[in-house]
């Protein structure tokens, strides 16, 4: 049973953030405008005492570097934000910086703002992620000192980054954390149907739907505009169709139990385990999309503690 605060936040998510095509049409919502509505908020950021914050040009990609002023480590957490490939980086990701730095033993935290749809479609965001990765290495950062963290579309980018580095025969990060990764653009998983009536962000409360109906709805959603004309079954578009091997680093995945994207996380973890990769899945009971990001209720804090423990374990701290 979700906590009272967790249920309240789920209600808020349903009221403010539902992007189901039927809800969008009924309420005359403008998805791109809505998802970008908070971007102007809190443009300026003052880091906590003992930390510095600097904006950088990471091979043409706007980036933000958060680091400990004294007794920092060589470790780096590369945070890849979500937002359906429509929304740019929101202010609340900065609120996680100190947590990631502590979890990595005083490591540096890097956020970046990749190109988004509808102005830019695949592979723009992946190209920007690769550019930031190369920039990190140019700064002297070692791949084995990096843990990537991504939520939603950022989780997709995190997996795509691993896939691209594997394809190129390059050293991958030390580990990867994925929060509600969006990995199946064909909406094939069972949770797309089973959780349609309980997902507060992508579904409609109490509704029942068939596989064909949910696909017809989602296929016309603006959330998929980032695809362009690309094949939805391409592994870089839908990583659930990728063939993984044991070369991939350890992965820790969190997902809400009420999410339509639950199957995305389950399928990925299952495939990684079959390939011999260390992969763990934490399912938040009655939780919604990317719930750990919001920090302010018990289930989110518990998930963040588990993520931090995973990161510390990878660095052997």
Structure report:
The protein has 317 residues and is α/β, with parallel strands linked by helices. It contains ten helices and eight strands. The protein has an eight-stranded mixed sheet with strand order 1-2-4-3-5-6-7-8, sandwiched between helices. β5, α6 (153-167) and β6 (175-179) form a beta-alpha-beta unit. The chain starts with a helix and ends with a helix. The mean pLDDT is 93.
Total number of beta strands = 8
Helix percentage range:
25-40%
Radius of gyration: 18 Å
* Assigned CATH architecture: 3-Layer(aba) Sandwich
- List low-confidence stretches: none
* CATH homologous superfamily heading: Alpha/Beta hydrolase fold, catalytic domain
Give the topology string: H per helix, E per strand. Answer: HHHEEEHEHEHEHHEHEH
Strand content: 15-25%
Distance between the termini: 33 Å
Helix/strand-derived class?
alpha/beta
Describe the main β-sheet briefly.
8 strands, mixed
Count every helix, treating DSSP H or I runs of 4 or more residues as helices. 10
CATH class assignment: Alpha Beta
User: Kindly state the mean pLDDT as a whole number?
Assistant: 93
Question: What is the global morphology?
Answer: globular
This entry's quaternary arrangement is single chain
